[in-house]
Specification:
The chain is of the alpha+beta class. It has a single domain, classed as SH3 type barrels (Roll), CATH 2.30.30. The protein contains one helix and five strands. A five-stranded antiparallel β-sheet has the order 4-3-2-1-5, with helices on one face. Strand 2 and strand 3 form a beta hairpin. 6% of the residues are buried. The mean pLDDT is 88.
Length: 85
């Protein structure tokens, strides 16, 4: 009975936890690789272009001359939908 419980918990970990860890690792790698000129989207849905990258923050130009400073954790890769905003 104990062995089945261990097998069950290992399967749960492989099916649920591992994909989440993999996604988090990919997001961390993306944020560490941010460069000026990269197109990004905030977690709130605002699109912009990276202007400057700091240790924990990113300056993003959302319109001509409008630059917002946001936490790196709020940045996601922009989906390439063919629109140059």
């Amino acid at each position: 009975m104990l062995i089945w419980m261990v097998v069950f918990f290992v399967l749960i970990w492989l099916l649920m936890m591992r994909p989440q860890q993999k996604k988090a690792k990919e997001e961390r790698k993306f944020r560490e690789g941010l460069r000026p000129g990269d197109r990004v989207v905030f977690s709130g849905g605002i699109y912009g272009k990276v202007h400057e990258v700091g240790d924990t923050t990113v300056d993003v130009e959302v319109s001509n001359g409008v630059i917002l400073t946001v936490e790196k954790s709020m940045i996601q890769p922009a989906a390439n939908n063919g629109n140059d905003r």
